[in-house]
Amino acid sequence: MTPHEPPESALYRTLLESTRAIPWKIDWATATFAYIGPQIEDLLGWAPTSWRTVQDWADRMHPDDRDRVVNFCISQSQSGVDHEADYRALTTGGDYVWIRDVVHVVRDLQGNVVSLVGFMFDITERKQNEHQLLQLQQELQELSFRDGLTGVNNRRKFDAVYEREWQEAQRTGEPLSLLMFDVDFFKSYNDQYGHVEGDECLRRVARALQQAAHRPRDCLARYGGEEFVLLLPGADASSARAVAQRCMQEVAHAGIVHAASPLGQQLTVSVGMGTALPGTQDDSKRFLETVDRCLYRAKHAGRNRIEATA
Ligand SMILES: Nc1nc2c(ncn2[C@@H]2O[C@H](COP(=O)(O)OP(=O)(O)OP(=O)(O)O)[C@@H](O)[C@H]2O)c(=O)[nH]1
Description:
Blueprint: H1 7-17, E1 22-27, E2 32-36, H2 39-44, H3 54-59, H4 63-78, E3 83-90, E4 96-107, E5 113-122, H5 124-144, H6 155-172, E6 176-183, H7 186-193, H8 195-212, E7 219-224, E8 227-233, H9 237-254, E9 269-276, H10 284-300, E10 306-308
Parallel strand pairs: 9-10
Antiparallel strand pairs: 1-2, 1-5, 3-4, 4-5, 6-8, 6-9, 7-8
Helix pairs in contact: 7-8, 8-9
Bound molecules: guanosine-5'-triphosphate.
């Protein structure tokens, strides 16, 4: 108790200064701190006496938060509206602590703002949890678009990217090429080496195809069991053919032995290929079917080859 402090005032002070929330008061006319709880020193390291003006408060805020928070708090206070703001406050050690400031605007009988009183809460832990949750959500979303076996995009992701790129090609008038791959004689590969080796084989094929796709917008996906697709936005027929040839070379370089293949000792793939210049009336599904028919032709013409749309 300070010398002339009445007992209940001392009680309030004890209550205020023993909470984890940090109380403060700002005199509106002078924009100076009339009071800040001593707990602030434990949290941020700055002594209560060093909190003199509103500028001290703003200066000890993360630069990325400062304008947003200061402008918001000033405009809310001017309008006499109670408010809350989250921001990172600087510690004397140079770190930042997430604070939630809960502000009550005190007005006189005429409605003029007299002072601001509030509490600062340390919400660092909550923010860290939020951040972790957000990261987890992103990882989950990322996983939901990946094929579990090979790690490349899955069919769901491909469908979404394909529709988006189709519309983009319609808008820009750029070509859109599509390659479809099917592993040759894969059933006999499984029969010969077993499903575990078969799975490993699909992973190696996926890696090989991925190596042949160089541009950032190229999208490789596992389309079905032993089928892959590679979408090549912006690629015309001749660049698509070059990529298709590179894919076959990469698969050959992977050197996957397939002793039972009637085509030799190595695993091969068949490729269907198409290039579209999608007009507004054109149908994306029809183009997929056309390329799928090319793949079918490649299979029936003997496999280990590329067949393209006319
Ligand atoms: N190991 C493994 N095998 C798979 C997977 N998905 C599909 N398959 C197998 O892939 C084989 C595909 O066989 P088919 O469609 O008859 O074709 P193929 O033997 O490759 O013959 P062609 O395509 O005509 O050259 C089937 O035996 C499927 O069981 C998978 O995830 N792992």
